[in-house]
Amino acid sequence: MASDATKAEIKNLLVERLFLRVQPEDIPDAAPLRETLGIDSVALFELIVGLEDVYGITFEENEFRLSLFEDVESIADFVEMKLG
After folding, report:
1. pLDDT digits (tens, 9 = 90+) for 14-45
2. Domain span at residue 68?
3. Which residue, 16, 35, 48, 60, shows the most beta carbons closer than 10 Å to its own?
4. Count of domains for the chain
């Protein structure tokens, strides 16, 4: 399970990179992002670029799965796994 700090950083990243009109703390950890925030493929690409920039990680071709971006929790788990 990802740390609260990582989840908070990802929520901030979502709001800043995607210009969402919601407070980061109002995004639930387990809410489906596509349905809750209207994340589409363009927004998903921007999110990936943001994660790579902020965390210095790279996404390998075999790591691109929609389930990875289901919610804040799954993104945070992936980021922490990549950071080791």
Report:
1. 999 999 999 999 999 999 999 999 999 899 99
2. 4-83
3. 48
4. 1
